[in-house]
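Work Package 3 (structural annotation) set out to generate three-dimensional models for the target panel prioritized at the project kickoff. During this period the team completed the workflow that converts sequence records into discrete structure tokens, so that structures can be stored uniformly alongside our sequence database. As a representative example, we reproduce one entry of 372 residues exactly as it appears in the project archive.
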Amino acid sequence: MKYIDEYRDEKVAHGLLGNLQRIATRGWVLMEVCGGQTHTLMRYGIDELLPNSMQMVHGPGCPVCVTPLEIIDKAVALAERPEVILVSYGDMLRVPGSTTDLLHVKARGGDVRMVYSPLESLKIARENPTREVVFFGIGFETTAPANAAAVWQAQRMGLKNFALLASHVLVPPAVRMLLSSPVNRVQGLIAPGHVCAIVGTRDYEALATEFHIPIVVGGFEPVDLLEAILMLTAQLEEGRAEMEIQYTRSVSAPGNVRAQRIVAEVFEVCDQKWRGLGPIAKSGLRMQEAFRAFDAEAKYDLHDIAVDEPTECISAEILQGLKRPTDCPAFAGRCTPESPLGAPMVSAEGACAAYYHYRRHEAVSLVSIGGN
């Protein structure tokens, strides 16, 4: 298939690895931000092929993983109301809150439905005028335009029984926090291609300048990531710190201007809490005053829900690239995709789920060694 097969071409991949082997003189530490990129690295074993002890660490690039427990509990509280139809994406139904998840609420009789687009929730609201329909929408800048469009459309349709429970986070402020940390090890960054396809590259150019760190906007296939790693390594070896685009087939410097406009019309920037990272200034989106009637938190008075993170889960260190999933004593034992302790094991983009599916032998080897 065009634009897929060529980015999985084995000969091209080996060529890129050969070039990387030739130019790399140090064990650089690189971070990929996006969870989709993490899964490609794990699935194809790219991180194990890198030369000279180069390391890939995994950033907070899974929107499900960084959604705060409070938001999950608010969704659960809404789903338990008999008058509410709670609508969301499949991943969100399995994310554990402080006591339960949305799938268990559904099993107990709650009206919880899975959709593939927030616009489907408008159809459900039209078909159920006597019920309250809440779409549980989370994500980075990538999903914000579709959620904004749903709210914008609901206002024009006069759908008074529709609301959005939103937890939108913005990537650059989180990256700035990680790079500012005194324990930061990251020397080069693969920026998320899908995010930059929406917002463009301006913020990443500023980060490259501010922290004097090379940043490459990368795609999601093996050749994409190998080329991005090669581009970062070339910059590091040459002493450069620039923002470059590897994912040119989808990303341009300005981004998607129309998507940016709908987001700016419906949402405004606000402070936001990230699961595992805590509050980050100006890293979230909330509804503008003109659309506040569709804000589920305000409409259903959910502001007083607050919970603490479970102490056993080390997702905070994993999301900051300080530890790997296999460093967690619960990994592949008490914590599995079927029975997750934390969000990084639930989501298809979570680092823990990636290690479980593609690198579980590491945990097994550690257990065997410890037993001897």
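Confidence is low (pLDDT under 50) at residues 363-372.
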